[in-house]
Design goal:
There is one protein chain. The strands form three sheets. A six-stranded antiparallel barrel has the order 11-14-13-12-15-16. Strand 15 and strand 16 form a beta hairpin. It is α+β, with helices and mostly antiparallel strands. The chain has five helices and 16 strands. Helix content is 16%, strand content 34%. The chain is globular and about 60 Å long.
Length: 268
């Protein structure tokens, strides 16, 4: 077992009698799943159904923890404060008290105490047990690059890296495949667009797993096909594997990204 710290993550705490009803009305997932599991993965969308933020929500006694990217944390707090109106919900940044990481290659069970909460990553079982903690972790520090390889190989997008705020549609990025959307709950912000897209057989663009002959170039690098048509762009990658957001109506043969030949894998 190893511990991989996530230095770019922060923690918000929500509490008060209206917390669950408030979250249920704005997020893509079903907050009531926390009755039977420790954590859920969810998104907050614009009214146009486009990605704004992704995060984990964790049941922690009378509190609900929201684990997110530090660079979006203050934006999320401001957005939640704006949306809650008259509801009895308190929202507070507690990142100074808690660290975030993952326990990788472990058989530990989900648990919580005064100083930590451990939960299975709800997106994919191979992504380990995430931990929000106050005390130092004594396990050996693991390799973040190896973690990223597992994430990418199993088609799990990272919202802050792979998606673009006010532009990306969640279904094009397979968010429904990683347990980030409930199609059985009530209304939430952007739901009409998500439901309409879910009835489409083919999306104009979609996220694919690609493998390069050499290390893949940076996020945003344009991808061309055999006809020298620009059909998409790279998203996050590690070494020679990564994601590409591609036009589904164009040929995916002989793909190149800045001179690196890419092959779309069978997993996509």
């Amino acid at each position: 077992m190893s511990y991989i710290p996530f230095l770019s993550r922060g923690v918000i705490v929500l509490y008060g009698p209206d917390t669950r009803d408030f979250l249920q009305g704005i997020i893509t997932n079903d907050i009531n799943k926390l009755d039977s599991q420790k954590a859920i993965y969810s998104l907050l969308l614009s009214p146009q159904g486009k990605y704004l933020y992704d995060f984990f929500l964790i049941e922690y006694g009378k509190y609900t923890l929201l684990e997110c990217e530090n660079m979006h944390l203050q934006q999320i707090i401001e957005k939640l404060d704006l949306l809650k109106t008259y509801l009895k919900v308190k929202i507070k940044d507690v990142s100074a008290l808690y660290k975030v990481g993952v326990l990788f290659n472990t058989k530990l069970a989900e648990c919580s105490s005064e100083s930590q909460v451990i939960f299975q990553d709800p997106r994919h079982k191979l992504l380990g047990m995430r931990i929000i903690h106050k005390d130092e972790i004594k396990e050996p520090v693991g390799d973040f690059t190896q973690y990223e390889k597992v994430r990418i190989q199993n088609l799990v997008p990272d919202g802050a890296k792979d998606m673009v705020q006010n532009s990306s549609f969640p279904l094009q990025f397979l968010i429904d495949k990683v347990n980030g959307i409930s199609f059985n709950k009530g209304c939430y912000i952007g739901q009409e667009v998500v439901n309409r897209m879910s009835r489409q057989e083919i999306f104009r663009r979609k996220l694919y797993l690609v493998e390069g002959d050499n290390a893949l170039p940076d996020i945003g690098t344009k991808v061309t096909n055999e006809n020298n048509e620009e059909i998409g762009e790279l998203r996050s990658s590690v070494d020679n594997i990564g994601f590409a957001l591609l036009n589904t109506g164009k040929s995916h043969a002989n793909l190149y990204a800045d001179g690196v030949r890419c092959v779309k894998t069978l997993k996509s």
